[in-house]
Amino acid sequence: MDEAIHIDERYPAQYWHPLDDGRIQCDLCPRDCKLHEGQRGACFVRGMADGKMVLTTYGRSSGFCIDPVEKKPLNHFYPGSSVFSFGTAGCNLACKFCQNWDISKSRDMDRLMDQASPAAIAQAAKAHGSRSVAFTYNDPVIFYEYALDTADACHALGIQTVAVTAGYIHAAPGREFFAKMDAANIDLKGFTEDFYLKLTGAHLQPVLDTLAYVHHDTSCWLEITTLLIPGHNDSDAEIRNLSTWVAKELGPDVPLHFTAFHPDWKMQDVPPTPPATLTRARRIALDAGLHYVYTGNVHDPEGGTTYCPSCRHAVIVRDWYDIRHYDVTEHGACPQCGTSIAGSFGQYEKPFGPRRIPVTMMPATMG
Fold first, then answer.
1. Is the dihedral of CA 267, 271, 275, 280 positive or negative?
2. E-state strands within 109-218
3. CA–CA separation, 160 vs 131, rounded Å?
4. Within this chain, do residues 257 and 279 fall inside the same structural domain, yes or no?
5. Do 36 and 185 lie in a common domain?
6. Which of 67, 178, 198, 329 is the most exposed place for a label (fewest CB within 10 A)?
7. Is 1 contained in some domain?
8. Rounded to whole angstroms, what are the CA distances from 347 to 69, 78, 129, 291?
9. Same domain, 64 and 51
10. Which segments constitute the Radical SAM core domain (predicted)?
11. What is the Cα–Cα distance from 177 to 180, expressed in whole angstroms?
12. Any idea what the CATH number is for the domain that residue 309 is in?
C-alpha cells in the first residue's frame, strides 16, 4: 500500500493527463504510470492527489555536498572546479545493481530532512564558490519541477547547472529539462534491450534518443557513463557495439567513462569489476574512434588522463578525482599543437581536489 500523500507534499507537477476511468497518466518518463487517487508512481515521489499529479519532494533533499566536478563524472566541464550537489529520494528506474540504493530506493520520506528553496540553493552555491550546481545522487528527472526552478535560480546568479541522469524521459519534458542544463552526464547502463529490461526495468531506445537529442539539438555539454558489471554488460561485443554507436551517432568527441561496479543492492553475488576489464573497455572504445575514454572508480592515471586527439600530448593528468597536471589553454586548446579539446574550459585555478564537503542548509536560508 502506498504511503499517504500529505497535504504539505503536494507541489503541482507538470506533464500528466486525465484518463477516462478517473485515473491520471504521468507523461514525464516512458513508464507512463497510470495512477488512482492517492497512488504514487514507480518513482515513488510523484503521485495523484485531489485528481491531479503532484511532486512530493519539492524543496526537500537527502543532503547537500560540495564535490569535485570530476566526481559526476565530468572531465571536460571546467576541470578542477567544485560543484554544489544535492538529490532527493526515489528513482524511475529499478536497477538491481544500484550504487546509490539508500537514496534512490528510499521509501522513507523522513530522511529528507534538509530543506531549501531553489533560491537558497543557488545562494549557497555562490557563497561556497562553486561554479555549478549538480542534480545528482538520485535522478533529477523525477524531481523535475524542483530541478528546473533551481536551475533558473542558479542561472540568475551566474551559477551553471549539471544533471546526472539515466536520461529516461519523454521528448517534450526532455526538451525543457536539458534547455536549462549546462552539462549532463547520462548513464548508458548497457547496450542491449535484454539488459535494460531485466536489470533496470526500463528500455534502451528512449535513452539512446535522449543522448542523440542532447548532443545534436542542445547546448548542454554531454558526457556518458557506463558501469561495467562482470558477466552482464562487459563482453567485448557489447562494449564494441556501444562504442561504435557513440562514435557514429554522436561523434568522436563525446567523452565516455567506463566505471567499476561494486557488489550492492540486489547484485551482491556479482564480483567487483577487475581493473583489467576497464582497461580493455577503454582500448576497445579508443579503437572504435572515440577521442576521450576514461576509467572510473579505480586509481588509473592512464585511464584518467585527457590526451590531445591530434598530438597525444597529456593535457590533463588525473588520478581518480585528483588533477596532477593541467596543460589546456584558457580557450580550451592543446598548447603543443593548437588542437581544440572538446568541452567547456576557462581560466584554470587551484583545483578543488578529491574532497567531499557536507553542507548544512541553515533554517534562515530556507525561505
1. negative
2. 114-115, 132-135, 160-165, 183-187
3. 6
4. yes
5. no
6. 198
7. no
8. 15, 9, 15, 23
9. no
10. 76-297
11. 6
12. 3.20.20.70
| Residue 366: per-residue pLDDT | 41
Indicate whether 173 and 51 sit together in one domain: no
- Write b or e for each residue in 95-116: b if 16 or more Cβ atoms lie within 10 A of its Cβ, otherwise e: bbbbebbbbbbbeebebbebeb
> Does the residue 156 lie in any domain?
yes
362 occurs within a structural domain: no
**Are 238 and 121 members of one domain?**
yes
State the Cα–Cα distance between residues 177 and 141, nearest whole angstrom: 8
Place of cell 552539462: 183
116, 148, 100: which is closest to 259 by C-alpha?
Answer: 100
Kindly state whether residues 124 and 271 are assigned to the same domain: yes
Contacts of 327 (CB under 8 A, 6+ apart): 313, 314, 315, 316, 334, 335
Helix axes 144-156, 118-127, angle to 10 degrees: 50
Instruction: Identify whether residues 181 and 196 lie together within a single domain.
Output: yes
Domain membership flag for residue 270 = yes
What angle is formed at CA 281 by the lines to CA 354 and CA 289, rounded to 5 degrees? 100
Q: Which three cell numbers stand for residue 55?
A: 511532486
Query: Which residues in the chain land under pLDDT 70?
Result: 1-2, 100-113, 265-266, 363-367
Geometric angle at alpha carbon 50, from 43 and 115, rounded to 5°? 55
> In degrees, to the nearest 5, what angle opens at C-alpha 107 toward C-alphas 101 and 111?
85
Structurally, how many domains does the chain consist of? 2
**Which are the contacts of 237, defined by CB distance < 8 A and separation ≥ 6?**
none
Range of the domain at 24: 7-55
Helices (H), 71-170: 101-104, 118-127, 144-156
Instruction: Give the three cell numbers for residue 355.
Output: 574532497
Return the number of other C-beta atoms located less than 10 Å from residue 220's C-beta. 20
- What pLDDT does residue 102 have? 57
Same domain, 41 and 135: no
Q: Which residue has the cell 564494441?
A: 240
| 14, three cell numbers | 507538470
